[in-house]
Structures are given as C-alpha cells and as structure tokens.
Design a protein that fits this description.
The chain is α/β, with parallel strands linked by helices. The protein has 2 domains: 128 residues, Immunoglobulin-like (Sandwich), CATH 2.60.40; 199 residues, HAD superfamily/HAD-like (Rossmann fold). The chain contains 8 helices and 15 strands. Strands 1, 2, 3, 4, 5, 6, 7 and 8 form an 8-stranded mixed β-sheet that branches. The chain is globular. 38% of the residues are buried.
Length: 339
C-alpha cells in the first residue's frame, strides 16, 4: 500500500506539473460529454474535464489510434455548470476529471441532451437516454468480444487491436446488433446499457461504432485506467459489480438480459448478480470466445430459474433465445451459420 500511495503521489505531481505548463502555453479547460441514462425521475449525466489548446475541440477528434486518446491531460476536481432542460446545477469532477452527476428531474422517454458549460467554450452535449417508465425489459451488454472483436484470450493480439486501431478498424461480433435490437424492439425506449472495463478515453469511438453498426442507442458505463489512491490498477470486476448494483436500485421495475462473453469474468459477475437479484434478471447470454469452428456447449445452465445461454455469436444466441421463448418470432437471419 505504501508503494501504491507513493505511485499515486508521483502521478498526481507529474499531472500538476504538466497542467501548469499547458496552462502557461494557453491551454484551457474543456469538457467531453458521455452518454448517460435516466429513470425513475433521476438523470445520470456523465462527462470529463481536461485541458486542451484554446480554440480546439477535443470532441472533434475522429478515428485516431487509441494510444493517442490515452494521452489526454485531465483536470481533477474542476467545477463546471451542467444543464438539463430548465435545470442548471454546479458539477465537480473527481480526481480523474470524471463527472458523474445525478439530477432529480422528470423527463419524457427518449434521448435528451444535457449540456456541460465551460467558460470560454461552446456548451458540450452529453446525451441522456431516458427509459420508458412502462418498460419491463432492459439489456446490459459488455463491449470487448461481445460487441466488437478484441481477442482478449490472446493478450498481444488484443493489445494491438486496442491501442493501435481505432473505431473504424474494429469488426463487430456477427449478429449481436440484431440480437440487442430485437430484445427491445417491442418496448420503445427500453433501457440499454453498454457496460465495459474499457477506459472512458474510448467513449467516442465506442459510441460511433455502435451507431455505425446498427446497435440500439444506450448509455455507456466505462471505467478509468489511472492509478488510484488504493490500487495501481482499478478493478474491472468491481466496476461491473458496482454498476449492476446501481442499476438494480435505480431501475427497479426492469428485468435485464445480461449479455457478455466467457473470455474473462462476465459469467461469474452475471451469476452473482442473478443470485442477488433474481427478480431483475430475465436471462444471461454469453458469447463463447473460442477458435472458429468450435461449437458452443449445448448445456442446460441456470441460476435458480434464470437460464444461461452460450453460443459463438449473436445470431446463434438469438436462435437459442427464440427456442426458449425469451425472444419472439423467427427471422431469416436466425438460420445464419455461426462464425
């Protein structure tokens, strides 16, 4: 712990020195807006404060390699105004520059724009996806090896795809966009949450990728990769568990289809959440991360009465959900082969 505390102090000091130099060169506070969600009369507005050259818009950086997106200079503990409709409140960033603001407000279902106001810069939109109060079904979906292909079981390959590529070089997991869309098509403005251990620096590429490949719109719940006062590496497992518990409390009337992959910790995280909240989980759907041609096991897995489905891609998962009665109807793409 002493080593962690020392590393955190060094990081904080280095950031302070770099920030001071940047400000002397004319850099000023800027904001990034991230997709949040709203339900039960409360909106969660997300964003980040950082330093950027005056006259430049950090939101406009498109399709640059991820390693360049990680080279940002965040502004810890900064204050800005956030507005949502007629409500305007003061927001303070955390130690990593992240803004996580809960605003008590009743909003109509659909996408609403919140705005982050930084002096000397135009307001920055931060979309808020407002869940329909009558929605009874929602989706929580992982990103890596669930939405797009990362190859997390091959660390060097995964690192290359993550740091050298960009949103346009990523390949989607076959059939996954269709699966998510079908799960919520009978419930307009059902809550859709993309939950990942990826860093907030990837929020822009992820949002663009989801839109470009036809995934239903939804909030992003990512994490921060920096050193914390308590650990050199922030726990992705703890981040996912906390996020699911918060969703259970903030969106109590929804039962979730939890979608992930079996390459890391999703199976254990989802099982534990289903045991703790059996009335709020409809099913668990796991993409099997295995070599092409390897068939997913046809096992009958459950957590209590909650079924667990495994398959190699979204198309095959849809087939199994249709057969179980959790996904209505039959479509031609249900018969597509599994990659």
């Amino acid at each position: 712990m002493r080593f962690v505390a020392t590393a955190y102090r060094v990081q904080t000091r280095v950031n302070a020195v770099l920030s001071d130099r940047a400000r002397r060169r004319g850099w000023t506070t800027a904001a990034l807006g991230y997709p949040g969600y709203a339900a039960q009369g409360r909106a969660r507005v997300r964003g980040r404060l950082l330093l950027a050259p005056a006259g430049t818009d950090p939101n406009a950086r498109a399709d640059v390699p991820v390693w360049r997106r990680l080279l940002t200079l965040e502004q810890p503990s900064g204050e800005i105004d956030a507005s949502l409709g007629a409500i305007r409140v003061r927001a303070r960033a955390d130690e990593a520059g992240l803004i996580d603001l809960t605003v008590p407000v009743d909003l109509p279902p659909g996408r609403i724009e919140a705005f982050l106001h930084v002096e000397g810069r135009p307001p920055v939109p931060a979309p808020v996806h407002v869940a329909n109060p009558d929605a009874t079904r929602g989706v929580v979906c992982d990103i890596d090896d669930t939405v797009w292909i990362t190859g997390i079981r091959h660390p060097l390959r995964a690192a290359w795809r993550t740091f050298a590529g960009n949103g346009s070089t990523r390949r989607p997991v076959a059939g996954m966009a269709s699966l998510l869309s079908r799960l919520v098509e009978d419930s307009p403005n059902a809550p859709v949450i993309y939950l990942s251990n990826g860093p907030w620096n990837l929020a822009g590429p992820i949002a663009d990728f989801l839109d470009r490949h036809g995934f239903p719109p939804g909030a992003l719940l990512l994490t921060d990769w920096g050193i914390s006062p308590r650990a050199l590496f922030r726990s992705g497992t703890a981040h996912k568990r906390r996020s699911l518990e918060r969703l259970a409390a903030e969106v109590p009337g929804v039962d979730w289809v939890l979608i992930g992959d079996d390459g890391e910790h999703d199976p254990a995280i989802y099982r534990d959440f289903a045991r703790a909240h059996p009335q709020q989980v409809a099913a668990i759907a796991l993409r099997t991360v295995a070599p092409i041609g390897t068939a997913a096991p046809e096992t009958q897995e459950t957590v209590g009465a909650i079924p667990i489905f495994r398959a190699g891609d979204g198309t095959a998962l849809a087939q199994r959900l249709v057969r179980s009665g959790l996904l209505p109807g039959h479509r031609a793409d249900d018969a597509a082969p599994v990659e």
